[in-house]
Amino acid sequence: MMLSCGSFQLTLSRPLVMGIVNVTPDSFFDGGLQG
């Protein structure tokens, strides 16, 4: 089975690792000022 996304094609015959990176300003460590 193939997964196509734009110019990328991924073969799903073996496990793949994917992740999401949150780079918004409020996603970084603030020194413990907020809970």
Biggest pleated sheet: 2 strands, antiparallel
Helicity level: under 10%
Beta-strand residue fraction:
15-25%
Shape from CA axes? Answer: elongated
SS field, number of helical segments: 0
- SSE order, one letter for each helix or strand: EE
User: For the residues shown, what is the average pLDDT?
Assistant: 78
Roughly how many Å apart are the termini? Answer: 44 Å
Structural category is mainly beta
* Low-confidence sequence ranges: none
Q: State Rg.
A: 17 Å
- What order do the strands of the largest sheet run in, or round the barrel if closed? 1-2
Question: What can you see in these coordinates?
Answer:
- It is a single chain.
- With 35 residues, this protein is an all-beta fold.
- Helix content is 0%, strand content 23%.
- It is built from no helices and two strands.
- It has strands spanning 2-5, 8-11.
- Strands 1-2 form a two-stranded antiparallel sheet.
- Strand 1 (2-5) and strand 2 form a beta hairpin.
- It starts with a strand and ends in a 24-residue tail after the last strand.
- The relative contact order is 0.17.
Quickly list its features.
single chain; 35 residues; mainly beta; two-stranded antiparallel sheet
Please give the structural blueprint.
Elements: E1 2-5, E2 8-11
Antiparallel strand pairs: 1-2
Short précis:
The protein is 0% helix and 23% strand.
